[in-house]
Amino acid sequence: MTGLLEGKVAIITGAASGIGKATTELFTAEGAKVLAVDLPGSPLNDVHGNDANVSCLEQDVTGEGAADTIVGAALEAFGKIDILFNNAGTVGQGGEVESHDEADWMFVTELNLHSMYRITKAAIPELKKSGAGRIVNVGSIRSEFADSGAAAYTTTKHGVAGLTKVLAVELGQHGITANFVQPGAILTGITEPAFAAMPEYGEYWKNRASTGRLGLPEDIANAVLYLSSDEASFVSGIGLMIDGGATSHF
């Protein structure tokens, strides 16, 4: 029995930890070859270096020429691109608009949205050649609503929703689908310190979830797998909420 992604080639950014790590491992288990991308100095090679189906690229996605470097590395390693999972991102320092540090605003928007746009743009010609290309972007539950103190993050995640829907409209004629996942409160290496420092924050989201728990990276990876597979060939332009039912209370 072959896997859901047998013969497919994927690019996954932010692949050294959390959702990106879990998705890379799931994709290769399902038959894909993966260009795994993360920052220089990250544990990328330690995590994936022994997997023959993974080619590791240490590259800051916001760096000059990063999009062309990433696409070129995937083609050099595997000869084609079928799937692009734009996962790299950050929450930033946060803060209300009046007091928000502009440097943080620029950093968050550059990483969460502008780099996604550039990598996707560079990958589109190769995804067209696939005939069944898949683009999956990381949005957030905050792609749907706003809250005080997270101006840059919330703005970028609304932007991810808009960009993805435009891509779905523009690229469907080429057999390419574009969707975005909307994680809720997920336990990752980035969020765990915050939950540890503010236990009440984790309890709040745990109690809001109808499932009574926080999410795991594997919960998101499974959704990304579906959206990247042939099983989702008629699914495009949507945001898939993965929050254990937490936002159903709003």
What are the low-pLDDT stretches, counting only 5+ consecutive residues below 50?
none
Read across the widest sheet, the strand sequence of neighbours is 3-2-1-4-5-6-7
Number of helices: 8
Strand content: 5-15%
In short:
The protein has eight helices and seven strands, in the order βαβαβαβαβαβαααβ. The chain has 250 residues and is α/β, with parallel strands linked by helices. Helix 1 crosses helix 8 and helix 4 packs parallel to helix 5.
Task: Give a verbal description of the structure.
The protein has helices at 18-29, 44-48, 66-78, 102-130, 151-171, 192-197, 199-208, 217-228; strands at residues 9-13, 33-38, 54-58, 83-86, 134-138, 177-183, 239-242. With 250 residues, the chain is α/β, with parallel strands linked by helices. A 7-stranded parallel β-sheet has the order 3-2-1-4-5-6-7, with helices on both faces. Helix 1 packs across helix 8. It is globular and about 45 Å long. The termini are far apart. The mean pLDDT is 94.
Q: Could you name the key traits of this structure?
A:
Rossmann fold; 8 helices; 250 residues; alpha/beta; single chain; seven-stranded parallel beta sheet; globular
Helix-strand blueprint:
Blueprint: E1 9-13, H1 18-29, E2 33-38, H2 44-48, E3 54-58, H3 66-78, E4 83-86, H4 102-130, E5 134-138, H5 151-171, E6 177-183, H6 192-197, H7 199-208, H8 217-228, E7 239-242
Parallel strand pairs: 1-2, 1-4, 2-3, 4-5, 5-6, 6-7
Helix pairs in contact: 1-8, 3-4, 4-5
